[in-house]
Amino acid sequence: MPITAIDGIATRYEVIGSGPPLLMYAPGGFNAVVEAWSTLGSYARIKLLDHLPKRFTCILFDRRECGQSGGRVERVTWQHFVAQGKGLLDHLGIKRAHLMGGCMGCPPVTAFAVAHPGMVSSMILYWPVGGAKYRISSHQRFAEHLAFVASDGLDGVVALVAKDGKPFGAIQVRIKSSAAVLSFRTRTSDDDEWRSVEQRIPIEWTQCKLGGARPWFRCAATSKGRYCGSRRAVLFLGGQAGFACRCCYQLGYASQLEPLRLRGLAKARKIRMRLGGDANVLNEFPAKPKGMHQRTYTRLRRLYDIAAARCGAVASATSIFAMALMLEAEPSPGSRFTRLG
Fold first, then answer.
1. Which ranges of 28-182 would DSSP assign to H, the alpha helix?
2. To 5 degrees, how large is the angle CA 182–CA 68–CA 183?
3. What is the pLDDT of residues 211-229, one digit of tens each?
4. Are strands 57-61 and 243-244 parallel, antiparallel or unpaired?
5. 25: helix, strand or coil
6. Distance between first and last Cα of the chain
7. 336 part of a folded domain
8. Do 112 and 15 share a structural domain?
9. Are residues 149 and 102 in the same domain?
10. What distance in Å separates the CA atoms of residue 272 and residue 267, rounded to the nearest whole number?
């Protein structure tokens, strides 16, 4: 199957059938891959892919952090999954499509329709996931996972996954005071041969104002015939250059893919919660907290009005309420691009 980079993350996808485009967010929880539509539970019984391609151009893909798609170590929200789906449609030159989500694929479909209503012809939410019991059990599972990482560390996670025989990419790291030496295998596409790489990444230390020191990576890539050498906290693995900085790979930020109204809504909610209020932008603006300077409160109110105008100028109160409900959902935890840092 072909692989393309979306927001610096490899996305494995497949296009089958003919007819109007149908973007399909796979079921399977944290293993939402193309094959889930054919092998998982009820989907294996109803055989959707034996029927839908006869009437639609079905666009299937491994969700980020799943299957052969890549990922990044960051706090992942529904908007990140929306960005992956939209990026795939943009890559294929499709301006409008039907959307279908199965199980945990339903929330990204709903978020997609809120963020990009002009790109959605229709939505099918098959077997939506959710409910109070699911939320409670999921929080319990995440708490257990976090406790395991805290007690056993990342080495314990790797050992646990390897013991169960699951595929798990690995990069051997040798740390020195002035450099990190990485040994790994990589390829740029499915058609290329795997090649072994050993890359030395310089480390520079700077003094902190309150004592101690912190390390930085030095990007050792050469871009457009020029050595980069910039000091970075994060590097990305994505091509012939090996690990390099965001500028060398010309990578954008996830927030750049969000519509203006969603950015305004997120800003407005953040200000409300800072003042001790709730996140619902339809409620009255919170009063000044005790101990806060009036000047600070006035400045926050002015910034809130600007942010609220951004989302209110292009969306009705009903759509703002829908976005607020969508953003209430807890983010799911978390390439050709792999993140280092």
1. 36-39, 41-46, 78-91, 106-115, 132-163
2. 10
3. 888 889 999 888 778 888 8
4. unpaired
5. strand
6. 29
7. no
8. yes
9. no
10. 9
